[in-house]
Amino acid sequence: MLKFGKRIIMGLSIAALAFSLGNAAPSKAAADGAEYYVSPSGSDANAGTLSSPWKTLQHAADVAEPGSTVYVRGGVYNQKLKITRSGSAEQGAITFSNYASEVPIIDGTGLSVSGKEGIVDLTDANYITINGFEIRNYATAKNGVMPVGIYVHGSGSYITLSNNKVHDIKNTATPKGEDLEGRDAHGIAVYGTKAPDSIHNITIDGNELYDLVLGSSESLVVNGNVDTFHITNNVIHDNDNIGIDVIGFEGKSPNAAYDQARNGLIKGNRIYNITSADNPSYEKGSTEAGGIYVDGGKDSIIEQNYSYNNDIGVEIASEHAGRSTSNITVRSNMIYQNRLTGIAMGGYDTERGSTKNCNIVNNTLYKNDSLGEGNGQLYVQYDTENNVIKNNIMVASSSDVLIYNEYTKNTGNIVDYNLYFAPGGSSDASWTWKNKEYTGFSAYKSKTGNDAHSIFADPKFLNVSNNDFHLQPTSPAIDAGSTDTAIIGEYDIDGQARVQGSAVNIGADE
Predict the structure, then answer these.
(1) Does residue 192 belong to any structural domain of this protein?
(2) Which residues, 6+ apart, have CB-to-CB distance to 89 below 8 Å?
(3) Is pLDDT above 80 for 350?
(4) Which of 196, 224, 381, 440 has the fewest CB atoms found within 10 Å of its own CB?
(5) If residue 267 lies in a helix (H) or strand (E), which one and from where to where?
(6) Is residue 89 assigned to a domain?
(7) Residues with Cβ < 8 Å from 295, sequence gap 6 or more?
(8) Membrane-spanning residues where (predicted)?
(9) Is residue 138 part of a domain?
């Protein structure tokens, strides 16, 4: 739905360090495996060892060499971290990590925000790992600046952001009338802002992002010239705009040919309580915020995620006229009780772009459209072309709407082998296709030609009161799906083999 807008420097020589620190220089890092230590009780005049640690993260970042690890002791660090040095393929990454089970906290309280700036900020960096930090309280009340928890930008490669807890990153500026730009923040942001050099081979795994005040921006975003990324096993919740966003066509890359995030995997994430309802950058009570959103990205897979209690479960769309989100596969996800709809695709009005050549397969959608506004479990918007919608379970909310497609610009889309159910039963269930409403499953099938092999039946979930949408042994979804191995993938929501024998279930659970 509507979404507005969205430094490699060499270290000082040992002699120079000795001069600047009054002859208290650290020992030079060994090429591989050197270990440095930072502690709130340390001193940058120390040797950087466990017994004689440094005090500031920045000092460590300015000295660490490829293959070295900076271990950060528990405590609060009210400071920024600018990473401008790189590891290497030969010697290994430069790693910044918590020490043992201790929790180092990078706290932005009182720190200024300059432009678009991360409290942890990586520019043109390669072979860097950031692991095990709590990053918090980086905030502003000013328009035109953007605080970010972890910000990766320029070009770069082989970057890992893992097991970090990012929260209370906020922009609380008051929107200026109808001008909603400039009130933005991100939890984690990756912006590929060069071309042809991309940011590539980036892994964002096992992080938690919450209590973010984002304005018109996103909790976790890859935008522009970003190629080959893994966003896996993160927990993202209780934020006032989009959970995960994969963006193209916003001009982040200086060359339009490279201005799409692509070749990504979004897997195993849990996204919940994402809503723009109280976000002053949107209308009061709005339902704009998706759990997972692809806006102009391409060639990516979204699988084995849980997306619930958001405004939209998953959206694959394009906000830019004449531009497409393309070749996205959405499969084996559990998507339930989202406010507007479960899965949305296509432009949100006739001034937007399209969704083409995408696959929506083997998802379980349960009582989305929880506001009862009639957007259904699958919301097919403007300009959809050559998409495949198969093997999905769709259980309607109180609206009894399964699919809602109010636009006639809808060509080459295949809808089949799905299982539908609605509180009002088969005769009262509703589908709108190419702006024509059909009440009753038989009428819908005969008039549209869709869903020749689909069924209308209670899917018999294990325990809906506990949000357990695995299938009972007697479920009619078992072995009733299409075995189109080119699109269904190898595994179900739990990592079990998708094809067992010659049969495939409908829905996320095999």
Answers:
(1) yes
(2) 127, 158
(3) yes
(4) 196
(5) strand 262-267
(6) yes
(7) 3, 6, 245, 246, 247, 248, 315, 317, 318, 319, 325
(8) none
(9) yes
Which phi and psi angles does 447 have, rounded to 5°?
Answer: -85, -30
Q: Transcribe 14-35 into DSSP letters.
A: HHHHHHHTTS-PPPPPPTTT-E
**Nearest partner of 429 among 456, 469, 393, judged by Cα:** 456
Which residues does 25 contact at the CB level (< 8 Å), separation at least 6?
Answer: 14, 17, 18
Q: Which helix (H) or strand (E) holds 61?
A: helix 57-63
- Show the domain range for 327: 33-488
Q: Is the N-terminal amide bond of 147 cis, ω within 30° of 0?
A: no
Q: Which residue has the tokens 């000795």?
A: 18
229 forms beta bridges with 202, 264
- Domains of the chain: total: 1
Written as six digits, the tokens of 309 are 């209690």
Nearest alpha carbon to residue 92 among 127, 123, 131, 132 = 127
Task: Write out the two tokens for 355.
Answer: 């969704």
- Is residue 59 within a helix (H) or strand (E), and if so which, with residue range? helix 57-63
Alpha carbon distance 409, 462 (integer Å): 39
pLDDT tens digits for range 205-235 = 999 999 999 999 999 999 999 999 999 999 9
Q: The CATH number of the domain where 370 resides is what? A: 2.160.20.10
Count CB-CB contacts under 10 A for residue 346: 27
**Calpha distance 283→173 (Å, rounded):** 16
Residues 203, 267: Cα–Cα separation, whole Å: 11
Is 492 within 8 Å of 498 (Cβ atoms)?
Answer: yes
The CA–CA distances, whole Å, from 382 to 12, 242, 264, 347, 387 equal 56, 21, 25, 5, 13
Q: How confident is the model at residue 475 (pLDDT cuts 50, 70, 90)?
A: very high
Over 80: is that where the pLDDT of 192 sits? yes
User: By the 8 A CB rule, do 146 and 187 touch?
Assistant: no
Q: Is 286 helix (H, G, I), strand (E, B) or coil?
A: coil
Kind of pairing, strands 461-463 and 468-471? antiparallel
Dist CA 304 CA 352 (whole Å): 29
| pTM reported for the whole predicted model | 0.92
Nearest-10 Cα torsion for 192, 274, 173, 6: 30
In a domain, 285, yes or no: yes
* Spatial distance between the Cα atoms of 228 and 76, rounded to a whole number of angstroms: 34
